[in-house]
Amino acid sequence: MQMSPLDYNQGVALLKLICDLEDGKREDVILMLTHRYDMKVDPNLVSAVKQKFQHVLTHVTERKGNGWPAGPNAMMGDSYLAAINMQRRGLDIDAVMFMECDCVPLAKDWIDQLKAEWDSCREAGKSVLGAWLEVGDAGGKHINGNCIIAVDYWQKNRGILNSPENIGWDAYHANSMCAEGLASRLIYSDYRLGTADNPWKGDAYLWEAKGYGTVTNPFFGEKLFPVWLHGVKTLQGIEAVCKKLLTSG
């Protein structure tokens, strides 16, 4: 997860939700927090996350930006390089799932569902899995940066390790990521959330069928029920998931 000062509170809320959705302690996931060099993550928060995830790491980046595209989006390349180095030191890492703080999981078993879809992606010979966006969906063709990417993907595209801060990391690498990527049914990006034509009409919207609006999109016309949604600009989405999945009675 990439965090900057502007989205720190939402990042904390997302981390707590991710932990609360796990009934036991996961030993098969490494959770890494990437943050700017000039901010600190509460050690009590890290300790709390370790109650649900066996492996929790922090990574400091020299990136200085806030917002888009110089904030969390620009940190993704640094997070990816850190994962490569961890693998070289002997950690068993097959893939990295990037998370910005404007995302939310929509099912208690979201990790296992995404792992299964990732296995299918790898079997198809692809190295990237994520929301496949076209011009009509997001202003330009690319796989959204809140995606899953193979740790060895850099061997096919060494440029992935270098990205300018003034261009979105995912948009900058659009051509190579799409060539090596597969569209995800479970990871969804909705750029309308937070805009004038925001379709949010109550909490139920999060679990309603989703669909991309461009004819050339691989999932145009299909109903999707994602387990991971990118685009939630406020804490409302996290609160809605807590209410639906964590409140008994």
Structural commentary:
- The chain has one domain (2-246): Spore Coat Polysaccharide Biosynthesis Protein SpsA, Chain A.
- The strands form four sheets. Strands 4-9-6-10 form a four-stranded mixed beta sheet. A three-stranded parallel beta sheet has the order 1-2-3.
- Helix 1 (8-20) runs parallel beside helix 8 (236-246).
- 31% of the residues lie in helices and 19% in strands.
- It has helices spanning 8-20, 43-49, 72-88, 110-123, 135-138, 169-172, 174-179, 236-246; strands at residues 2-3, 26-36, 53-61, 95-97, 103-105, 128-130, 132-133, 142-143, 148-150, 181-183, 187-189, 228-230.
- With 249 residues, it is α/β, with parallel strands linked by helices.
Task: Write the topology of this structure.
Elements: E1 2-3, H1 8-20, E2 26-36, H2 43-49, E3 53-61, H3 72-88, E4 95-97, E5 103-105, H4 110-123, E6 128-130, E7 132-133, H5 135-138, E8 142-143, E9 148-150, H6 169-172, H7 174-179, E10 181-183, E11 187-189, E12 228-230, H8 236-246
Parallel strand pairs: 1-2, 2-3, 6-10, 11-12
Antiparallel strand pairs: 4-9, 5-12, 6-9, 7-8
Helix pairs in contact: 1-8
